[in-house]
Automatic annotation (TrEMBL):
GO molecular function, one term: metal ion binding
One Pfam family named in its UniProt record: DIOX_N
UniProt similarity note: Belongs to the iron/ascorbate-dependent oxidoreductase family.
Domain Fe2OG dioxygenase, first and last residues per copy: 191-291
Protein name: Fe2OG dioxygenase domain-containing protein
PANTHER family with a match to the protein in the record: OXOGLUTARATE/IRON-DEPENDENT DIOXYGENASE
Disordered: annotated span: 21-44
Length: 340
């Protein structure tokens, strides 16, 4: 119990430290930029309710790999309920939170945790999280989720279902934009494994030395993310880190590694990270849409041509996940290892 409590960033901050422990100090080349750039308009915003979406979405996929969607039909009431339910958990007393501690020995175990990776020699992220296993329904056990506020579990179930539908709609648009049958990516992924991770980034006394979450690409097919109005998600574009402007009704779409493989690199997964600040805690909610571990993922044969040869080896998704957790992300090194 004590050891689990000590490893929480939130607990460190509550102890009133003015300097961060050395285990959280990033090497100079990984530290955040002194003034993050939101110039040039930031990441694109695609209005799914507009006719322009069919041109804007492929452009955003090709040029950025990450974009915000509005006009998506998910009620703002639900987005706000998810954010406020998550915040309620992290604002509850530590004694309450620790009852939901995940198993620190197994990566991606459900519950309240702080360390993403199995290895413990890397620099630590300035982040605590709550991970929910939400799909398939056989993995969904709301009794393991916080029991307060009383609506917490119903809100997460409704959100899980809405995010599945939205992810599938986006995957269909992405497939069609590459002249693939509309269900192509959905079928290639197979039965969806969905996790919802609420990240809580406590204020950091030395935000220029740490990262909330190190640079990575997501390992599954597509990630849908909402954030509060603090801001801290940065996307790498042409060698520059660009801040994703907080928009309360937007959902951020992040293309992940399996989509890069399936599209044979036509669309690339987005490298992103979270920065922290000294004044305000920040909350985000990421919904991951992943294949089953038994699924083999490979480039669509229709996208392999003389002018665009095969770029990635086939991979068993379970092997991809194990390697990601054992080596760590370090940008996009895991997908880079599959390049032919
Ligand atoms: O908190 C954020 O904005 C980023 C979260 C993220 O990238 C992740 O959980 O994979
Ligand atoms: Fe991510």
């Amino acid at each position: 119990m004590e050891a689990a409590a000590i490893s929480r960033v939130q607990t460190l901050v509550e102890s009133g430290l003015s300097q961060i422990p050395s285990s959280y100090i990033q090497p100079p080349q990984h530290r955040p930029n002194p003034s993050p750039s939101a110039s040039g308009g930031g990441i694109p915003v695609v209005d799914l309710s507009s006719a322009a979406a069919s041109a804007d979405l492929p452009r955003a996929c090709r040029e950025w790999g990450a974009f915000q969607v509005v006009g998506h039909g998910v009620p703002l009431r639900l987005l706000d309920a998810v954010r406020s339910s998550g915040l309620r958990f992290f604002e509850s007393p530590q004694g309450e939170r620790i009852r939901y501690a995940c198993d620190p020995a197994s990566p991606a175990s459900e519950g309240y945790g702080s360390r993403m990776l199995a290895r413990d020699d890397g620099v630590l992220d300035w982040r605590d999280y709550f991970d929910h296993h939400t799909l398939p329904e056989s993995r969904r056990n709301p009794s393991r989720w916080p029991h307060f506020p009383p609506s917490y579990r119903d809100v997460m179930v409704e959100y899980s279902d809405r995010m599945k539908v939205l992810a599938q709609r986006l995957l269909r648009m992405i497939s069609e934009s590459l002249d693939l049958p509309s269900s192509y990516i959905e079928d290639a992924v197979g039965e969806v494994y969905q996790n919802i991770t609420i990240s809580y980034y406590s204020p950091c006394p030395q935000p220029d030395l740490a990262l909330g979450l190190q640079a990575h690409s997501d390992m599954g097919a597509i990630t849908l993310l909402i954030q509060d109005d603090v801001g801290g998600l940065e996307v790498l574009k042409d060698g520059r880190w660009v801040l994703a402007q907080p928009l309360s009704d937007a959902i951020i779409v992040i293309l992940a590694d399996q989509t890069e493989i399936i599209t044979n690199g036509e669309y690339r997964s987005s490298q992103h990270r979270a920065v922290v600040n000294s004044k305000q805690a920040r909350l985000s909610v990421a919904t991951f849409y992943d294949p089953a571990k038994t699924r083999k993922i490979f480039p669509a044969p229709q996208l392999v041509t003389e002018s665009s040869p095969l770029k990635y080896k086939e991979v068993l998704y379970g092997d991809y996940v194990s390697s990601w957790y054992s080596k760590g992300p370090e940008g996009k090194r895991n997908i880079d290892a599959l390049k032919i």
